[in-house]
Design goal:
CATH architecture: 3-Layer(aba) Sandwich
EC number: 2.7.1.73
CATH class: Alpha Beta
Distance between the termini: 26 Å
Keywords: ATP-binding, Kinase, Magnesium, Nucleotide-binding, Purine salvage, Transferase
Protein name: Guanosine-inosine kinase
Bound molecules: adenosine-5'-triphosphate, inosine
Oligomer: single chain
Helix content: 25-40%
Strand content: 15-25%
Largest sheet: 9 strands, mixed
Pfam family, one: PfkB
Number of domains: 1
Catalytic activity: guanosine + ATP = GMP + ADP + H(+); inosine + ATP = IMP + ADP + H(+)
CATH topology: UDP-N-acetylmuramoyl-L-alanine:D-glutamate ligase
Low-confidence stretches: 7-18
Structural class: alpha/beta
Strand order of the largest sheet: 7-5-1-11-12-13-14-15-16
């Protein structure tokens, strides 16, 4: 486990240099390993830049992720190829991207549950998927199936907005027998997306996902849900609210999904509402940056030294230096919030924002897993005097998440090709030390 970013804390990693008293009691030479698990519809992104008329021609709703018939996918693919519009074919899937980015950032293990072709030809979509996935993502538990993995035709309009046309292939055939209960119950988090429950009645993906979240909940493993697109939420708003109440620890969404889920267009109010149902919220807001919200115990809260910010909840960031906690782990829970503007104001030019939100979530997962890793390896540390959800404060995590989103935006790909620089010397004063 690589530590998430710069810290001035006395509890700095690596854990190998742990408390000498503790080492005598437990003379471990090797740190106890940690991992996170995720379920995804395994698919490749086929990216093309198209005029608006292209979306109209194929009746694709802008900003949506739509399931389409294989014949229609073939027609779209043929037209894109004929006009030489395809710019890349790259591993995708919202959880696949998140796990990959988590593994790149943390240099640690994530386990992907999903469906993969049982035979793989060089150059095929499944081959591309394997080539573009970090070797730290454990693919050994994938369910083999005849047929093709999913294709996500990612159409970028001139204004940068992306629309997904999904040719699903075998992506929703994941059977519960291809989950691993022990791995799920010993992970630092189980990550799922709202897309997983929109399979057809006869397909097992939804039931498999429900089983996985039940196992995670039983073991107290945080269930982290990313919302997909606003259309998925709008279709079944009440169902999602109940699902979040019943199973979820962390909700990740953008401001459109937040509006669909809560009825609040203001991300802060949306976060406040979601905290009525769950423990932590990441709400990205494009050029406005991102918000994080969670609970802190009255005893553990820490006041910010930054400027207090105005907003729908005045001075909402007052306790942003607090580390996030579950509501049930607080004797006296208070809601804490933070906001951060885009790193360095955002890149000069953004070709598409695909995956920027997934990147932010990967950073949050990294901080959560680092906390678990530290607790496993240095259980007596005062860092764990109370049960926290993350290693760092909300404020630190938001900086980190935003920094990762920036990296995704400048790389023009939802999947990071490298981790973040260890030190960003030029930014020490102006950014990291703020
Ligand atoms: N136009 C922009 N200018 C500056 N920063 C941006 C812009 N768009 C996105 N970002 C950065 O990326 C982060 C996530 O962006 P956004 O809210 O678009 O995610 P998203 O819609 O969830 O993306 P996806 O679903 O494709 O992963 C923002 O919090 C911000 O830091
Ligand atoms: O139905 C879906 N299931 C899983 N992932 C999806 C679906 N639609 C789009 N994406 C994925 O979302 C990522 C950006 O956040 C894209 O990389 C795309 O592959």
């Amino acid at each position: 486990m690589k530590f998430p970013g710069q810290r001035k804390s006395k509890h700095f990693f690596p854990v190998e240099s742990r408390d000498p008293l503790l080492s005598e009691i437990s003379p471990l030479n090797k740190p106890i390993a940690s991992h996170i698990c995720g379920i995804d519809q395994v698919l490749v992104d086929i990216e093309a830049h198209v005029p608006e008329s292209f979306l109209e021609k194929y009746a694709l709703s802008k900003g949506h992720s739509m399931l389409i018939e294989p014949e229609k996918a073939a027609a779209i693919y043929a037209e894109l190829t004929a006009h030489n519009l395809i710019v890349s074919e790259f591993a995708g899937g919202t959880i696949g991207n998140t796990l990959h980015n988590y593994s790149v950032l943390s240099d640690d293990r994530s386990v992907l549950f999903g469906v993969m072709n049982e035979t793989i030809r060089v150059g095929s979509s499944s081959y591309r998927y394997l080539c573009n996935t970090s070797s730290k993502v454990d693919l050994n538990y994938l369910q083999p199936a005849p047929g093709s993995i999913g294709q996500c035709i990612t159409l970028i309009a001139p204004d940068g907005e992306r629309s997904f046309a999904i040719n699903k292939g075998v992506m929703d055939l994941l059977d519960v027998s291809h989950l691993d209960k022990t791995l799920i119950q010993t992970g630092s988090a189980l990550v799922i997306s709202a897309y997983l429950v929109r399979c057809e009645e006869h397909e097992p993906m939804k039931d498999t996902t429900m089983q996985a979240v039940a196992w995670a909940k039983e073991a107290g493993v945080p269930v982290v849900l990313t919302m997909g697109t606003k259309f998925i939420v709008e279709d079944r708003k009440e169902w999602w609210q109940q699902f979040i109440r019943d199973y979820v620890t962390v909700v990740a969404m953008n401001e459109d999904e937040a509006l669909a889920l809560t009825g609040h267009g203001d991300p802060l109010l949306a976060c406040e509402q979601v905290l009525e149902w769950t423990d932590m919220v990441l709400c990205t807001a494009g050029p406005v940056g991102l918000y994080l919200a969670s609970f802190a115990d009255e005893e553990q809260k820490r006041e910010t030294s930054r400027q207090l910010l105005p907003g729908a909840l005045p001075e909402f960031n007052r306790f942003e230096f607090s580390r996030p906690m579950r509501r049930n782990d607080c004797a006296e829970p208070i809601k804490v919030y933070t906001h951060i503007s885009p790193y360095m104001g955002g890149p000069d030019r953004i070709k598409n924002t695909n995956g920027a939100g997934d990147g932010a979530l990967a950073a949050l997962l990294h901080d959560m897993a680092a906390n678990d890793y530290h607790r496993l390896n240095v259980p007596g540390s005062s860092k764990h005097a109370a049960r926290f959800l993350a290693y760092s404060s909300l404020s630190q995590v938001s900086k980190y998440a935003n920094r990762v989103s920036y990296e995704v935006l400048v790389q023009h790909s939802p999947r990071l090709s490298r981790g973040l620089p260890e030190r960003e010397d030029s930014l020490e004063e102006v950014y990291w030390d703020q």
